[in-house]
Each structure stands twice: as C-alpha cells, then as structure tokens.
Amino acid sequence: MTSSTSSPGPVGPSARLAYDDLAPISDMGTDCEAAGRALHLSVGREAVAAAAVARAAVRPAPSIHFADFPREVPKRDIEVGEAAQRLANALSLYLD
Question: Which runs of E-coded beta strand occur in the chain?
C-alpha cells in the first residue's frame, strides 16, 4: 500500500519556497542574511570577512579598457646581493 499523505508545503503569507529563482536580488540577499543569522555565521572574523565580501559584491567591476591603464609601467630594479654573487661565481654563473 502506498501512502497518500503529502509533505507540508509553505505555510502562511510570508512563507517562500527554498528555490525562488524569480525573486528579486534584494529579496535573495535578505534571505541569505537571515539564514546567516539563524545559523550564527556572523560572529568575529567571519562577520568582518562577510562584510568585506558584501562590499566587494556591490562594487563595480574593474575596467577592461586599454585606455584606463598606464602605458608606461616602470620595471623594478633587481639587486644581486653579495652572497648571491659569491654563490653564482662558485657555480660559474655570470650575473650582471
């Protein structure tokens, strides 16, 4: 025999489905914040990291246009230390 009972669905006017793909982004964000509070995820360092992620998520994307970047970027000078020079000389390498 099979049971004809169905699992209970959302109850009440504010109940929502678990996967509400058509919901506005602001509603989904509110749902995530509520879930985080219910799971006690916003404590200590996690709260700071979550706040940083939230700020980064709403910042505009960096530009990909060539004109927005400097054309001449100076290269860093690489200095060869005395110990590295002695080691290179011992291995018959020539560092200038």
Answer: none
Distance CA 70, CA 54 (A): 29
9 Cβ partners below 8 Å, 6+ apart?
15
Rounded Cα distance, 44 and 49, in Å? 9
Which amino acid would we find at residue 13? P
pLDDT in tens, 39-69: 776 566 777 888 888 888 899 988 888 888 7
In angstroms, the CA 51 to CA 45 distance is 10
Coil, helix or strand for 17? coil
